[in-house]
Amino acid sequence: MTKLSIQIPVYNAEEYLELALRSVIAFAPDDAEILIADDGSNDRSPQIAEAIAEQHDSIKFKRFDTNQGCAVVRAWMVEHTDADFIAPFDADDLMLEGYLDKALSKISSDNTIAMVYAKNICFESKQSNITCRGFLGNSFSAFSLAYMCPIPHGSAVIRRGNLLRCGNYMTVPCRSEERIGMADFFLWLRLQSTGKFCFLDECAYMYRIHPTQLGKRSEEQYQRERDAVIAWVENDHPTIKQYIETGDIRLLTNESKPLAMYIAGKRSQQATDLLQQYELYQRAEALYPDDFLLQHKMVQNLTQQKDIRALEYSLNLTQREDLSLDVIKNVLKVHANLLKELGAPYENIVRFASTIEQQDQATKHTAVQLATNTYNRFKT
Q1: Which of 196, 279, 321, 356 is least surrounded by Cβ atoms within 10 Å, i.e. has the fewest?
Q2: What is the pLDDT of residue 380?
């Protein structure tokens, strides 16, 4: 049985596909398979993929005659492998050296881990040069999915059994004819109930920003997609609404708890006053009491209420050892501001935050150098 399947859907990616595949081939673990599926491209993508596949025994190639949509193709790929783990990747990105081996080692060491993920480096390329535009990815918080997605999809290494158990990739159900995106986000919501998400504080791959990106959507479309996700959650799990109203945790199952966390987060954003917001935070806290972003939101809310309990939550956050440098830096800054507002000594916390920020910047500088070297290696 193959241990890892690196899966790459392709749709009209002729400009970037060869570089992406060369990076994956170079940095894939020795026993990994690389599965490429062309989703009805009308450019030279299938010819490029097929030519490269013919040169490597580890590559399998599938071509769909008509465009199915990314979620459908990814689900097909998961079903048509016997690998233990899935590494989804995109046809316009670049893999970085060493990450897949580390992620595979981590997820193999603990059967309770459903997924390992890391950060990415966002970049643009022009002629033979690249410009780094920042980093995405951070420590996992179930509450954070109500605000943003901390998981760069191309960094994920997912246990295949868990992926199938939560329903595989699927398109978000929607009443309109519009094809809804957010297949990765929709998966994270459902996958949480099957096991832990483990974050590695390093860069896994280079995420390319370009004008023809399939993932680019307007704010209006994002809102329609978010509304479709909320509608699906509330329609398929009606007891979640009851839980939000009553706080009776017996109404929830392991499957519905992360979804209830998501709804509590969305509703807290719409709360009309601090007390209503705090009550929704309490509903979320009963589900995931150690969630760092939720604790951070509690600090903000209680500070605005001038409630001394804010200090307790803030202090707990500063003692966490499972957070990324970026999160620790922000936690310390919030804690320092809170101490300052309370008239307590805060200067040491500020200095500590500055030290952490310097460490974070040094790490990111090293990652940018790695990205630049990787791009120069494969562009020729």
Answers
A1: 321
A2: 63
**What is the mean pLDDT of each successive set of 10 residues along the chain, which is 380 residues long?**
90 95 96 96 96 95 93 95 97 96 97 97 85 93 91 97 95 61 87 96 94 66 81 91 95 95 95 96 96 94 91 90 89 88 85 90 89 86
Q: What is the pLDDT of residue 174?
A: 63
CA 93, 104, 48: angle at the middle one, nearest 5? 30
Separation of alpha carbons 9 and 46, rounded Å:
11
Domains of the chain, first to last? 4-221 (3.90.550.10), 238-359 (1.25.40)
Report the 3 state secondary structure along the chain: CCCEEEEEEECCCCCCHHHHHHHHHHHCCCCCEEEEEEECCCCCHHHHHHHHHCCCCCEEEEEECCCCCHHHHHHHHHHCCCCCEEEECCCCCEECCCHHHHHHHHHHCCCCEEEEEEEEEEEEEECCEEEEEEEECCCCCHHHHHCCCCCCHHHCEEEHHHHHHCCCCCCCCCCCCCCCCCHHHHHHHHHHHHCEEEEEEEEEEEEECCCCCCCCCCHHHHHHHHHHHHHHHHHHCCHHHHHHHHCCHHHCCCCCHHHHHHHHHHHHHHCCCHHHHHHHHHHHHHHCCCCHHHHHHHHHHHHHCCCCHHHHHHHHHHCCCCCCHHHHHHHHHHHHHHHHHHCCCCHHHHHHHHHHHHHHHHHHHHHHHHHHHHHHHHHC
The tokens of 81 are what? 């492998």
